[in-house]
Amino acid sequence: MSLIHALVAAGPTILAEHSAGKRDFSQATQTILSKIPPNNSKLTYVWEQYLFHYISEGGFTYLVMADDSAGRRMPFAFLTDLQRKFTSAPSSSAASDSPAYSQQGSFGPVIADLMHTYNTAPPPDELVRAQTELNQVKDIMVQNVEQILSRGERIELLVDKTDVMAGQATAFRRGARTVRRQMWWKNTKILALSAVVGLVLMWILAAQFCGAGLNQCGNKPSAT
């Protein structure tokens, strides 16, 4: 188990406590309580292989003894929950002047249930949860990169096809310009030929009345 012993005290007076083990830590807890300054503070004491974490605020001390393997974040999360439950209890307002263990019957089971929860299924640590989510995102990104690399041949083939299509489009544009140029010259030749044919037809018609040299139309007959 990670959390071994927890208590709520008003100054050096223990109001309620719970121990998850069989060993008696009353002397150790009294020693730690005597060293806690009266001002608001949050600290960790080392005793043998155990750590005593506490939060002192508003004249009350919330203390938990834990294994070194529990670290600091989880025990202090437990103390924060313990403080919230105690301050929300109806009897907490008058507990500062209460005798020792006056809250044991009402608040001792609350400490026991909370310790059991944190020892069996502690709430997820926010930092650990954020790190887990970050690792999941990183794994997804790695998988995506691996999938892209595995499709390298398809990507290269797609690039080759794109290059071919670009070359075909360039050739098509060049061919279209050539065809337009050829059609322009063809239309120009047709127009020129039509003009020549028109002039020839006009000359033939004029030649029928004026002669082949077109000189008879200007000579009027003289009077006798």
Topology of this structure?
Blueprint: E1 3-10, E2 13-19, H1 26-35, E3 41-47, E4 50-57, E5 60-67, H2 73-88, H3 104-120, H4 126-150, H5 152-210
Antiparallel strand pairs: 1-2, 1-5, 3-4, 4-5
Helix pairs in contact: 2-3
Total count of helical runs of at least 4 residues = 5
Helix content: 55-70%
Q: What's the gyration radius in Å?
A: 52 Å
Annotated CATH topology of one domain: Beta-Lactamase
- Biggest sheet: strand arrangement: 2-1-5-4-3
Q: What is the CATH homology-level superfamily of one domain?
A: Longin domain
Structural class: alpha+beta
Poorly predicted runs of 5 or more residues: none
What are the defining features of this structure?
five-stranded antiparallel β-sheet, alpha+beta, 17% strand, 5 strands, 224 residues, 57% helix, transmembrane helix, rod-shaped, single chain, transport, Beta-Lactamase, membrane, transmembrane, V_SNARE_CC
